[in-house]
Amino acid sequence: GLENVTVTMGTRAMKARAKKATTTTKPNFVVGFVYLLATQLTSKLLPFFINTLVARQLTPEEFGVPTVHFYLLSTVILTTREGFRRALMRDSVSDASLRYAWFVLPIGGFLSIAVPTAVLWSQNISTAEPYGLALAYYGVAAFIELCAEPYYIRAMRLSAFKLRLVAESISTVLRSVLTYVLVSKTQNNVVMAFAYSQLLYATSMAIIYIASTPKALAKSSTKDTATVKLIGIFSVQVCQI
C-alpha cells in the first residue's frame, strides 16, 4: 500500500512538472512568433510605404540606383555573416564557441573596403563624385552593422525576439524618415540622402544590440574545431547561392 501511494505521488508530480513545462513553453513560443511577425511587418511594410512616397518625387533612374545598386553592394558585404549565423545559432554549439563570431569583423572589414573599391575602380569613378562617395558610405555602413553581429547571435540564442523587434523597428523608422526628409529637401543629391540614411540605420542597430545584449558568461580558450568547420561550410554554401 505504501509503495503504491509513493508511486502514485511520483507519477502525479511528474505529470504536474510536464504540464507546467508545456504551459510555460507554449506562451513563450507564441510570444516569440508574435515578435518575429511584428519585426517582419515593421521592416517590410514601413520601408515600402516610405519608398513609395520617395519614388513619387524621383525619376526611375534616380530611385533605381540607391535601391538596386547600393542594395546589392550591401548584400555582398553582409553575406559574410550568414555562415556565422547558421553555425553559431545551432543548439549543439556551446556558448563558449560564440567567440568565433568576432571573426566576422576582420572578414567584413576587408570586404567593406574591397567591394566598394573594386566597383569604383571598375567603373572609373572617384569618391569626389556623389555616387562614388555614397558607395564608400554604404561600405562603412555595412561594416558598422557587422559590428553588432556577435551581439545579435547571442541575443537570438537567448530568444531575445523583443530586442530584435525594438532594434529593427527603431532603426527602420529612423532610416525611412531621414530618407524621406533628405530626398524632399535635396533632390539634386539623392544618392547621398540614401547613404546618410543607411549609415544612421547601421549605427542605430549596432548601438541597440551592443547596449542591450547580455554579455557572455562562458569563457574558454579551447579550440572548437567542429564549429570552425561548420562556419566554413555554411559560408561556402552561402557564397554558392
Automatic annotation (TrEMBL):
Any single biological process term in GO: dolichol-linked oligosaccharide biosynthetic process
Record keywords: Endoplasmic reticulum, Membrane, Transmembrane, Transmembrane helix
Subcellular location: Endoplasmic reticulum membrane
Gene Ontology annotations for the cellular component aspect, listed alphabetically: endoplasmic reticulum membrane
Domain of life: Eukaryota
Leader peptide range in chain numbering: none
Annotated transmembrane regions: 29-51, 63-80, 100-121, 133-153, 189-211
Topology versus the membrane: Multi-pass membrane protein
Pathway in which this enzyme or protein is active: Protein modification; protein glycosylation
Family stated for the protein in its record: Belongs to the RFT1 family.
Protein's job: Intramembrane glycolipid transporter that operates in the biosynthetic pathway of dolichol-linked oligosaccharides, the glycan precursors employed in protein asparagine (N)-glycosylation. The sequential addition of sugars to dolichol pyrophosphate produces dolichol-linked oligosaccharides containing fourteen sugars, including two GlcNAcs, nine mannoses and three glucoses. Once assembled, the oligosaccharide is transferred from the lipid to nascent proteins by oligosaccharyltransferases.
Protein name: Protein RFT1 homolog
